[in-house]
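name: query_chain
kind: protein
chains: 1
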Amino acid sequence: MSEWSFVEIARVFERKQGTAAVELALESRELADGWMAYGGQGSYVNKSCGFGFDQPVTEAQLDELEAFFASRGVEPKVELSPFAPPALLESLGRRGFVLREFVNVLYRPLRPGEDLRKLPHGWPEGVRIEQVDPTDEAAVLEFVEVSSSGFMPEGEPLSPVFLDLGIRSVRHPGTTAYVARVGKEAAGAGSCESSGGLTSLFGTSVKPAFRRRGIQQALIAARLARGQEQGSTLAIIASGPGIPTERNATRLGFAMAYSRVALAKPGQGLVPSP
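structure:
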């Protein structure tokens, strides 16, 4: 393991997730040692996160959390690490929050000089990884369409909310986005962000026709190399339990750090958020 403890990984990564949500949101508010963010109905940044580490969360703040989301027509949503205080979980339970999702957070040390292109089954034949130019509108749109494809039913068009968030994410100064090409076709895509010695990998999809060729592993390797260049000592990737992202990350040296939970409070007329 790296010199990072699991609670340190959680504190830094959850706050990184929170600041990213705030930067992409239309509206946001501080909440204890974290934030609440709203990016429009159907937005994946509709959540409260990054708190539960260094400050207690009061009942008045939980009232504020519920009002912030409900007044905007979406379900109040909370993301918590396993290091959150039991009293906070008890308060949320009494208020009617229910479990919506588990996300596994995996970590991998990054070492100077490590050859990150050495994949378990070799580099996938005919695949090249290209960095996306955030000033190239066509390249940005292509990236957003490909990187979002795995998060919605095949053939379904991107909603305006997802499209806008994707474009703003690629153009964020801290983001580096990559497209994997087979010939001239974009077969997969993914992003990363490096700061504070930690590189986060996110937003990865591979088109169905190109799966099982090692393309996702190649995209992971390219982003690990980017983190290495940026001087990071740790890489993080968040994944649904048991899906290909988790399996590919494990094959490339990632290990489990902790599981995050998403809790939401259903209500009449309130729209769930992804």
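note: The chain has two domains: 6-103+260-264, 111-232.
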